[in-house]
Specification:
The complex is a heterotetramer. Chain A contains seven helices and twelve strands. Chain A has a five-stranded mixed sheet with strand order 3-2-1-5-8, with no helix packed on it. In chain A, a hairpin with a 2-residue loop joins β1 and β2. The longest helix of chain A is centred in the N-terminal third of the chain and has 30 residues. Chain A is elongated and about 95 Å long. The N terminus of chain A is likely disordered. Chain B folds into two domains: about 55 residues; about 40 residues. Helix content of chain B is about 65%, strand content about 0%. The longest helix of chain B has about 40 residues. Chain B is flat. By secondary structure, chain C is mainly α. Chain C starts with about 30 loop residues before the first helix and ends with a helix. Chain C has a single domain, classed as Up-down Bundle (Four Helix Bundle (Hemerythrin (Met), subunit A)). In chain D, strands 1-2 form a two-stranded antiparallel ribbon. In chain D, α3 runs antiparallel to α7. The chains are: A alpha+beta, B mainly alpha, C mainly alpha, D mainly alpha. Chains in contact: A-B, A-C, A-D, B-C, B-D, C-D. The structure holds heme-A (2 copies), dinuclear copper ion and copper (II) ion. One heme-A sits at the interface of chains D and A.
């Protein structure tokens, strides 16, 4: 089955127009990203040596092609000075490249003081960004022009956060913290992807980076959590069900996925993998979310990892209300 | 002419009297054994005292002396072609390289593990 | 190089038991012997680097979690370890003497010394088994629950799920286990442990026993392999296969056995003595 | 010279002795090499099947040949694992190395023929393990087996790990054999610095095989132990350290890329010199650079972990050291060019593939500079850029050299000549196909396409309340080019296969020295007799072509009196 929706008519497609940027790099959301000059420096070195080597090779192939009766000319078979020259020149060049790369790296590593701090948790297969006020979202919203520091960890396997437009990438390693910082200088929406292979839905572990103006950001932050208090619990739960990625494993229409469908489970009695049974009630659902490994449903792998710290108690209540409505 | 020395000069003659290897004297083997047993006794005894950070160095130092004795005499390195000893030392060097850099890194990033452990407690 | 230097084919495959048969692709016994010996040394290097992974694991854990080793070593029996060290060193001596006998063409001492070496290997393994059994009894073996499950009828009854990859046993075994750990630490002078501290200690023990069993287990595997090849040359010795110009196999097996000893020389202080 | 008269050789190693059994228990390095060659080519074809499935899948967004990420993950894992463990690592040493190393030394066999056969059987057993994994539905860890994913996935990881472990021993055995053979069995008159450069490169390779492979073995063993018994080594949930695994793994796997490329460079050194009819330039430097690469290769493993949580201090050390490896590689490339200078260059298929090598490996190696520099690696790590880099080095480097070697030694191995024109055409098709396949991946990688991605335009959140992300339509076109190129590439290889296999049926009989090469393997018959040489040959300068003259009648090169 070929999915043609992804194809665009050629006319619609000036090759690079869609994402902007240069031929090699996507549009940057920061002024003067430290990486870019290093990239172009190396590119220039590569181009130079590639054309030098392949050019000479082509030249020799044509110029000294075998001709009947023509013998190869005698040349010397070693020339120490020449060897030293073509070892030392590349050595100097790579020395420069190393230094440039290192200097830019240090700039990208050392966060300035006064960063806005956001906690990032990666799990199979979604991102959870927790703001200083305790609110969690699955997209990254940041204020413009302010350095932002992400303190990251993972609850299951290794993930990696990549924002091409900001030229930052760092792995999220379970059992420890890692961090990156950046400063976005242009408002807009950018991509955020997971670049460490993490399982079935690795290529769907995506998020958006939304760069707001300073006022918009504060406003967004105030309003974002509103739905939990303004909407009826079941509807808030429905939104949360999307945002926390439950839908990736649990359908609401009865088809089994990685996890069981949650359609009509409330009140039923389920058989567990160890032979016991359990009645699906509020407590069981709460436990399933916070300690999924405690009771494993028969016929499923224990792959759901905990939501401890990623959903608040109130949020769990709304999720339960939502699950109750699935009939 | 530019023959580098190797364990066997290629195709050396096959006269029957070329000795294949050195025979180690009995006395030497027995002395080495006695030394090894003594050193073992010493490390065990020493382990009951506490030298703080030196414990590790003492234990490993003694172990290294023992290992050297075994390699030099029991394994004939002292009498054999120096090439064997060289490659053995190189191997140990690579072990050190692997262990050294990995440890250097693990110690460097360990604080990030600790803060995580504290925060989840 | 001329063909004539090659010995005529007749003595190549013996008849004369004092000189090794010369394989068709070698020119001289010396070349053959040196090749074999160099090959063995290169193989020993691969062994050193094989164990380097284990030492590296140990070093990283030791650097970052020294407490693991402080706790862990309370659970090992230093006298047994020391005894085993002596046994291995002695077996190394007998092995070195065996090589010497082979070189000198003394058959009876060769047989005797190889037998003693083999016996020492057995003693070493016997002591190791005793230690392992004790750990098993106190449920200190990593993955014990899984091993039990694998060998029990539960595996095929279709109902029971395999136990989690945890160190702790399930059910009543757990209470017994905690009791044991608590007692043992009390012996070492650490009596009052809160529940949280005990949890931490158990986690430490889990790490330590993982290291202990993997390191000593792989070493024991090498001892077993070494005994296998010693047995093989013992049979050869009994059949009179070795002589003053035909001792390569004995020499190489000796080198292997010494390396196994050498590794133990490090394992012993690292596991039993350091705290 | 020999005092005894050379006896007429009735049979070649292929037919002497006859019978299947004689092949299965053979200790003849030539037969073992040939069997390796067949098995390795089969593995290459298997890997290529997965490659084509991957390419077809990625052509358009959404599912093409597979419909879930889970299935796609199995594809690239099997592709990577088969290509690495069954193809590239043994590719040149175990096949051509086994075949020509003893002959180049004028010896009758490698030092330990039985160990050599064991190496072959271990390879077969490892292959069987991989096929079992395939039958059980494949694994989905990526060829790098990173925990904790590899300790938690439900696929048969342990089986695959054991397979790789066994293949590791096959590689170690080959390494030990070559090292000892080169040390103790050189003929009189062949000092270290008169050996063919191919042997120097195999020597360097053997050093790495011996020093690095055991670390892979222990790594895989620990991974299996962790998975089965729950000992906490690498999995943080059990008290382990995930970064530790990466150190372990790359301590082997970085040097392993030089296990792949060194023998490849060795072949190129031979081929370039022979077909330029010029003495190799800078022999000593090429020889030393092989050893330098082998040793320096051990100092850089951490460059695969710049963003994985390695400390910045260690990252800096590794980045600096990474660049040092580029120098010996540069030395080799420049010396090859100097060899061609003022030569008499004949574009035989082997030479064409050697030139492809310089072209493609040049790009692959140079793009390694982006990866070695800290700031740029932060951006391109784990993207299609890296995929392009390593295909340029492995497929563009090792595979091209493998093909060059295949065309170079084919007459010697099989005793038949193939069609030169077809070979040249194949080289051209492969060159074009190759660049079409992978060059676009540099671009999309740098622009935002991660690797190991099943689907690449569904960058839209399913929840309409959320900001929509425009898909990357530009990637579609690059991906289409890449897939077309991939098929062209495979087409070129099919051409190679038809040409070579066809030559066995009715190809012209090959003379002893069709190319006028001066290394010893061209002094014995094609195919060589069982014992290679009736009498030990005399080793002269193996890059001196002055006294070799083409004899039109015999269609081969003969020594001038
Ligand atoms: C045959 C295999 C092979 C070879 C030879 C190389 C060679 C090199 N590789 Fe590559 N590499 C791989 C196979 C290989 N690589 C694989 C498989 C991976 C990914 C694994 C995975 O994650 O799955 C990888 C990944 C990889 C990374 C990690 C990327 C990442 O994941 O972020 C890095 C980083 O430094 C790197 C660097 C290099 C360098 C500097 C060289 C150097 O040795 C190159 C030296 C050569 C040249 C420089 C070109 C020739 C010289 C000239 C033309 C002269 C001019 C030169 C100068 C001026 C310097 N490689
Ligand atoms: C030597 C190693 C090697 C080789 C040759 C190849 C060859 C190819 N690879 Fe492979 N690839 C890897 C090693 C290799 N690959 C590795 C290690 C990975 C990473 C896996 C991971 O992430 O874990 C990878 C990943 C990888 C990806 C990325 C997947 C992803 O990250 O999502 C892609 C995508 O395009 C790809 C494509 C191809 C293609 C089109 C070829 C083509 O070049 C194939 C061309 C076909 C042939 C070369 C063979 C044809 C043979 C015959 C017809 C028989 C020949 C017979 C005789 C010669 C007698 N490969
Ligand atoms: Cu998370 Cu990939
Ligand atoms: Cu590398």
């Amino acid at each position: 089955m070929i999915d043609l929706d992804g194809l665009y008519s050629l006319a619609e497609l000036p090759l690079l127009a869609q994402t902007g940027g240069s031929f090699w790099l996507p549009d940057a959301a920061t002024k003067d990203p430290a990486m870019d000059p290093v990239f172009y420096l190396i590119l220039a070195v590569c181009a130079l040596f590639f054309f030098l080597v392949v050019g000479l090779m082509g030249l020799f192939v044509v110029r000294y092609a075998r001709r009947p009766g023509v013998k190869p000319q005698k040349t010397t078979t070693h020339h120490t000075l020449l060897e030293i020259v073509w070892s030392v020149i590349p050595l100097i060049i790579v020395g420069v490249i190393f230094y440039q790369g290192f200097a830019a790296y240090m700039e990208m590593q050392n966060a300035p003081s006064g960063c806005y701090e956001i906690r990032v948790t990666g799990r199979q297969w979604q991102w959870v960004f927790t703001y200083p006020n305790g609110y969690s979202d699955d997209n990254l919203h940041v204020p413009v022009d302010l350095p932002v520091k992400l303190t990251m960890t993972s609850t299951d396997v290794i993930h990696s956060l990549w924002i091409p437009a900001l030229r930052v990438k760092m792995d999220l390693v379970p059992g420890r913290y890692t961090s990156v910082w950046f400063r976005a200088d242009k408002e807009g929406t950018y991509r955020l992807l997971c670049t460490e292979y993490c399982g079935d839905e690795h290529s769907n572990m995506l998020a958006a980076v939304v760069v707001h103006s300073a006022e918009d950001f504060q406003e967004w932050l105030k309003g974002a959590a509103d739905y939990l208090t303004t909407l009826p619990p079941a509807e808030a739960g429905k939104i949360l069900y999307q945002r926390r990625g439950c839908f990736q494993c649990h359908s609401t229409d009865g088809t089994a996925g990685t996890g069981p469908s949650l359609l009509g489970i409330y009140g039923r009695t389920h058989t567990l993998a160890d032979g016991g049974t359990v009645v699906v009630d509020d407590n069981y659902i709460r436990q399933s979310i916070l300690e999924p490994q405690a009771k494993i449903l028969a016929g499923y792998q224990p792959v759901m990892s905990t939501y401890q710290g990623l959903v608040t108690d109130d949020e769990i209540t709304t999720l339960i209300e939502f699950i109750k409505t699935l009939k | 002419m530019d023959h580098t020395k190797t364990p066997s000069a290629p195709n050396s003659a096959s006269q029957a009297d070329v000795p294949l290897a050195h025979v180690v004297e009995l006395r030497i083997l027995l002395t080495v054994f006695a030394a090894l047993i003594m050193l073992t006794a010493i490390t065990v005894a020493v382990s009951y005292f506490d030298f703080g950070a030196f414990n590790l160095s003492v234990a490993l130092g003694v172990a290294t002396i023992k290992a050297t004795l075994v390699a030099l005499y029991f394994m004939h390195l002292r009498y054999d072609n120096a090439f064997y000893a060289t490659i053995f030392v190189i191997a140990v060097g690579f072990l050190g390289l692997f262990l050294g850099i990995t440890m250097l890194d693990a110690v460097e990033y360990y604080p990030d593990v600790q803060t995580w452990q504290q925060s989840t407690r | 190089m001329t063909q004539s230097q090659e010995p005529p084919p007749a003595p190549r495959d013996g008849g004369n038991h004092d000189a090794a048969p010369l394989a068709h692709h070698f020119d001289s016994l010396k070349q053959q012997y040196d090749s074999a010996k160099l090959g063995m040394w290169v193989f020993l290097i691969t062994e050193v680097l094989f164990f380097s992974g284990l030492f590296c694991w140990y070093a990283v854990f030791r650097a970052n979690h020294p407490d693991v080793f402080v706790d862990g070593h309370h659970f090992l029996e230093t006298p047994l370890g020391a005894f085993n060290t002596a046994v291995l060193i002695f077996s190394s001596l007998t092995m070195a003497l065996a090589v010497r006998s082979a070189q000198l063409g003394r058959r009876a001492p060769l047989i005797g010394l190889l037998s003693v070496t083999l016996l020492c290997g057995l003693v070493f393994l016997g002591v190791k088994t005793a230690e392992y059994r004790q750990k098993w009894h106190h449920r200190l073996v990593p993955g014990q629950a899984r091993i039990e499950y694998f060998f029990s009828a539960k595996r095929t009854d279709g109902v029971s799920a395999p136990p989690a990859k945890e160190f702790l046993p399930e059910g009543e075994g757990q209470a017994q286990y905690r009791q044991y750990v608590r007692q043992h630490l009390a012996h070492a002078g650490e009596e009052i442990l809160t529940e949280e501290q005990l949890q931490g200690r158990i986690a430490n023990l889990r790490s330590f026993m993982g290291i202990y069993f993997t390191l000593t287990g792989l070493h024991a595997l090498h001892v077993i392999i070494g005994m296998g090849v010693i047995f093989w040359i013992l049979v050869g010795a009994i059949r009179g296969r070795f002589g003053p110009r035909r001792f390569t196999a004995v020499d190489l097996v000796g080198l292997y056995w010494h390396l196994v000893d050498l590794i133990w020389i490090y394992l012993f202080p690292l596991l039993y003595l350091i705290h | 010279m020999a005092t005894t008269q050379v006896e007429p050789v009735p049979d070649s190693y292929l037919t002497d002795p006859r019978g299947l059994r004689s092949w299965l228990v053979t200790r003849d390095h030539k037969r073992i090499g040939l069997m390796f060659l067949v098995l390795i080519s089969a593995s290459l074809a298997l890997g290529a099947v997965f490659a084509l499935l991957i390419r077809t899948e990625l052509t358009l967004p959404g599912g093409q040949v597979v419909s879930t990420g889970a299935a796609y993950n199995r594809l690239f894992t099997l592709h990577g694992a088969v290509m690495i463990f069954l193809f590239v690592i043994p590719a040149i040493p175990s096949s051509f190395g086994n075949f020509v190393l003893p002959i180049m030394l004028g010896a009758k066999d490698v030092a330990f023929p039985r160990l050599n056969l064991a190496s072959l059987y271990l390879y077969v057993v490892g292959m069987v393990f991989f096929l079992l994994v395939l039958l059980l539905g494949g694994i989905d860890t990526g060829w790098t087996f990173y925990p904790p994913y590899s300790t938690s996935t439900a696929t048969p990881v342990v089986l695959a790990v054991v397979g790789a472990f066994i293949l590791g021993f096959s590689s170690i055995f080959t390494g030990i054999n070559f090292l000892v053979t080169i040390h103790t069995m050189r003929p009189p008159g062949m000092g270290w610095f008169r050996m063919p450069l191919f042997l120097w490169s195999l020597y360097g390779t053997a050093v790495i095989q011996v020093l690095a492979t055991p670390v892979l073995a222990i790594t895989l063993l620990l991974l299996a132990v962790e998975r089965v018994l729950g000992i906490g080594i690498f999995d943080d949930k059990l008290g382990g350290d995930p970064i530790l695994f990466q150190h372990f793994f790359w301590f082997y796997s970085h040097p392993a890329v030089y296990i792949m490329i060194l023998p490849a460079m060795g072949i190129i050194s031979e081929v370039i010199s022979v077909f330029s009819r010029k003495h190799i330039f800078g022999y000593d430097f090429i020889a030393y650079s092989s050893i330098a690469i082998a040793l320096l290769g051990f100092l850089v493993w951490g460059h695969h972990m710049f963003v994985s949580g390695q400390s910045p201090l260690v990252a800096m050390i590794f980045s600096a050291l990474t660049f040092t490896v580029a120098i010996p590689s540069a030395i080799k490339v420049f010396n090859w060019l100097a060899t061609m200078y003022k030569g008499s260059i004949e574009l035989t298929p082997a030479m064409c593939f050697a030139l492809n090598f310089i072209f493609l490996f040049g790009i692959g190696g140079l793009t390694g500079l982006f990866l070695g520099a800290l700031a740029t690696d932060l951006h391109v790590h784990d993207t299609a850029f890296v995929v392009a880099h390593f295909h340029y080095t492995m497929a563009g480097g090792v595979l091209m050299a493998f093909l060059a070697g295949l065309f170079y030694w084919w007459p010697k191995i099989t005793g038949r000549m193939y069609r030169v024109g077809w070979g040249q055409l194949a080289a051209l098709v492969v060159l074009i196909g190759f660049n079409l396949t992978y060059f676009p991946q540099f671009i999309i990688g740098a622009r935002g396409m991660p690797r190991r991605f099943f689907d690449y335009t569904q960058l839209v959140q399913p929840d309409p309340d959320f900001p929509m992300l425009k898909p990357h339509p530009e990637f579609v076109y690059y991906q289409i080019i890449s897939t077309v190129g991939g098929f062209l590439f495979v087409g070129g290889l099919v051409l190679v296969a038809i040409n070579l296999i066809g030559s066995c049926f009715g190809g012209r009989k090959a003379p002893a020295n069709p190319w006028g090469a001066a290394t010893l393997e061209w002094q014995c018959d094609s195919p060589p007799p069982r014992e290679n040489f009736a009498s030990a040959p005399e080793a002269g300068d193996c890059y001196d072509y002055d006294d070799l003259e083409y004899d039109e009648q015999a269609q081969e090169y003969v020594k001038l009196p």
